[in-house]
Amino acid sequence: MDKIVVEGGVALRGTVQVSGAKNAALPILAASLLAEGDHAVSNVPDLADVRTLGRLLGHLGCEVARDAAGRKVGLRVPATVKPEAPYELVRTMRASVLVLGPLVARWGRARVSLPGGCAIGARPIDQHLKGLAALGATIHLEHGYVEATAPAGGRLRGAVFTFDGQTVTGTENVMMAAALAEGETVLENCAREPEVADLAAALRGMGARIEGAGTGQIRVHGVEALRPLSHDVIPDRIEAGTFLVAGALPGNDVFVKGCVPEHLEVLVEKLRAVGAVVSAQPGGLRVVGDGRPRPVDLRTAPHPGFPTDMQAQMMVLLCLAAGTSKIVETVFENRYMHVQELLRLGADIAVDGKTAVVKGVPALSGAQVMASDLRASAALVLAGLAAQGSTEIQRVYHLDRGYEHIEEKLAPLGARIRRVKA
Ligand code: EPZ
Questions:
Q1: What is the per-residue pLDDT across 301-357, written as a single tens digit (0 to 9) for each?
Q2: Is 312 in the pocket of ligand 1 (CB under 6 A)?
């Protein structure tokens, strides 16, 4: 297994380009199942998770192709597919469940493996299933699979449905299904993430009638048929946020090119509270790490709250603060796996349930550490950049799921970082 080695203590300077958003590209590629024909999606990040979804779509009978630069994906969706997503593919990436809504809406039935457990939490899909049932689907769980069947005649029907809790992929799955349902659907307590709004924009480009995406209420007027996708994916705000935290580490000065400042407001607010200088510049955000960070408290929450996908990275910055910070993780019940590894780098963190108390230390020191999940691995890279000496991060396959060649993006900023092939 590849590992990444970082020699810390070097000031970062320069510009880093943000890629397309993983968490927008995945549902948008799944949405292609809603229409027969040739689809084109651009600004798609070259990531392991995107390739996994490509394999799943291929398994369903689609032809998937990438252009040389790997940013444009062409998909040919046939008139008939085999609406079955096997365990072997779904277990490697939970977001595979995003084919469920489109398959049952378009073909009247779907058999999709239940996604198993996950390092950061139980992550059930009950809300996805309740939403599809509200649209008239019959749901059976059998042998580890979800069997969803549309009412006789094969078409789902519009309904009013309120999510018990905000769920990003749940909102996306039900919204996609509602696009081909008969009549109007009103979804309440929806997730408001920019990726949900980007999916809705892609669906409208296919001829869907959707209002309110990005707010708590989404209204969908179902249509008979949709046309192929032609969409440009939004920039990745979590990748951008990770680079903004890198720039806010003491002594750094980084311009994060291609990010959308509106998608990063709460993070920028916290970075300014820590003492970093963040300024909007044409085409992105510049961040300067101005001296030792100040402590701040933060609480993760669904968008527009502080993103849980930035919690680990922000914790690294607070590990170096002049004082004590409190972090409360409210979205996932087990998202502190990175803490044990940060303690190995000399951090001072105490976890009690949802709360982590981070006592700032003057410096971190390099060590061998192990990545446990995608965002934890990004935090370990940032900690390695800030630490004195060498840090070796193992199991970086987690990183490759959501960051496009991160070492090649950080090296031009002066980072001494390299990948050691297995
Ligand atoms: C999406 O996951 C993202 N993944 C996650 O990013 C992100 O952490 C998460 O949203 C929250 O922002 C993609 O978009 C592919 P949720 P998702 O459903 O949709 C509970 C990354 O690092 N819940 O919004 O799976 C759930 O257990 C990844 O890129 C139910 O109880 O998250 C969690 O506690 C990690 N029942 C909470 O809701 C359900 O049916 C929010 O989960 C669905 C969710």
A1: 999 999 999 999 999 999 999 999 999 999 999 999 999 999 999 999 999 999 999
A2: no
Alpha-carbon span 190 to 203, nearest angstrom: 17
Active site residue 190: no
Amino acid at 109: R
Among protein residues, the one with the nearest Cα to ligand 1's atom 31 is: 124
Compute, in angstroms, the gap from residue 96 CA to the centroid of ligand 1. 13
Q: What single letter denotes the amino acid at residue 175?
A: M
Task: Give per-residue burial for 278-291: e unless 16+ CB within 10 Å, then b.
Answer: beeeeebbbbbbee
- Neighbour-count burial of 92, counting CB atoms closer than 10 A to its CB (0-12 exposed, 13-18 middle, 19+ buried): middle
Exposed e or buried b per residue across 166-198, where buried means at least 16 C-beta atoms within 10 angstroms of its C-beta: bbbbbbbbbbbbbbbbbeebbbebbbbbbbbbb
Cα(123) to centroid(ligand 1), Å: 7
C-beta atoms surrounding 22 within 10 Å: 26
pTM above 0.90, yes or no: yes
Q: Which residue has the tokens 């809705």?
A: 200
* Pocket flag, ligand 1, residue 27 (CB < 6 Å): no
Nearest partner of 50 among 78, 86, 23, 81, judged by Cα: 23
Residue type at 85 in one-letter notation: A
Phi, psi of 352 (to 5 degrees): -135, 100
Ligand 1 in reach of 191 Cβ (< 6 A): yes
In 10 A of CB 153, how many CB atoms? 9
Q: Helix-strand-coil percent breakdown of the chain, rounded to 5?
A: 35, 30, 35
Residue 210 CA to ligand 1 center (angstroms) comes to 22
Q: Find the helix or strand (DSSP H, E) in which 398 lies.
A: helix 397-400
Q: Is 384 in the pocket of ligand 1 (CB under 6 A)?
A: no
